[in-house]
Amino acid sequence: MNKKLFIFDLDGVIVDTAKYHFLAWQNIASELNIDFTIEQNELLKGVNRENSLLKILEFENKSIDPSLFNSLLIKKNNIYLRYVEKINSSDVIDGIKNSIDYIKKHKHHLALGSASKNAQMILRKLELFECFDIIIDGTITEKAKPNPEVFLRSMNRLKVKSEDCIVFEDSISGITAANTAGMISIGIGNKDVLSNANHNFSKFNLITNQFLSHL
Length: 215
Ligand code: B16
Ligand code: MG
What we know:
Helix content is 42%, strand content 12%. The longest helix has 19 residues, at 66-84. The chain is an alpha/beta fold. Helix 1 (18-31) runs antiparallel to helix 4. The protein has a six-stranded parallel sheet with strand order 3-2-1-4-5-6. Strand 4, helix 8 and strand 5 form a beta-alpha-beta unit. The protein has helices at residues 18-31, 38-42, 49-59, 66-84, 96-105, 119-125, 149-158, 172-180, 209-213; strands at 5-8, 109-113, 134-136, 165-169, 184-188, 199-201. Magnesium ion (MG) binds next to loops. Magnesium ion (MG) is lined by residues 9, 11-13, 45-46, 170-171, 174.
């Protein structure tokens, strides 16, 4: 059997920090007098910090001064950092550790593919940093999801074929990135929202070892 590469997204797959990104953006949006909804937030999942603020402004056809733009990015991140300050290993989403154990036991590759610049800090808090063979995050990538760069980098580094790569994602942009890369995409969350995924699970702990073995 070919050695597979399993690529995990971070926010919304490994840990439920997607809700903290939403709350922090809501704070920034209200400062701009923009009504930012949970439905609009789906379009921000997996999207990097800069593009997220651009999208929020686009929702209401607003533009702002570049110096305000940058200060709002810093403010959003500070709010987000306060939310994640206390997360720890008990916040790892159910089913993640079981899948990591399966991947390790069968000697497959394990990578992180996240848009976040906070990914490494969060992984350390979750005590998962050491598990990954390779970590590709927002500090490394030049092109944001839905561009497939974040997934292709680990594939190329580990010399795996795209059809042997499996991506777990909670975002529309991340599923699009995986599909564009020719990888197997697994959507975690609302099936109607992630309808472009190859496989869908409402929660990560519904993924069984048997399912993993058939990929
Ligand atoms: P940061 P992921 C993404 O992480 C989040 O889904 C997205 O909401 C966030 O804007 C982006 O990271 C950037 O995060 O502000 O921490 O650099 O889902 O790709 O793991
Ligand atoms: Mg995500």
